[in-house]
Amino acid sequence: MHNYDDLQKQRIQQLNASIEEGLLQLKTSKKTSSSVAYQRLKKKIEKIAKNPK
User: Fold this and answer.
1) How far apart (Å, rounded) are the C-alpha atoms in residues 41 and 51?
2) Residues 32 and 39 sit within 8 Å (Cβ to Cβ)
3) Which spans in 1-53 are helix H?
4) How many angstroms separate the CA atoms of 25 and 44, rounded?
5) What is the spatial distance between Cα 24 and Cα 19, in angstroms, rounded to a whole number?
6) Cα angle at 24 between 18 and 29, to 5 degrees?
């Protein structure tokens, strides 16, 4: 069973990995348009809203 601190550390690691991926994409000119990024984020939020834990 995970406690709050473990879950928070895991989420921070996920966020750091996402940020690192984004920075790498910028460095290699693999940019994503804001509309595409917004749609991806919107889908993730809707998925979380439908399946709360």
Assistant:
1) 16
2) no
3) 4-27, 34-50
4) 20
5) 9
6) 125
**Triad 13, 48, 6: Cα angle to 5°:** 30
Over residues 6-16, the pLDDT tens digits come to 889 999 999 99
pTM of the predicted model as reported, rounded to 2 decimal places = 0.55
- Of the CA atoms within 13 Å of residue 25, those in its CB half-sphere come to 11
Which residue in 40, 44, 16, 47 sits closest to 8, CA to CA? Answer: 16
Structure tokens at 17: 């990995």
Between vectors from CA 20 to CA 40 and to CA 36, what angle results, nearest 5°? Answer: 20
The full set of domain ranges for the chain reads 4-50
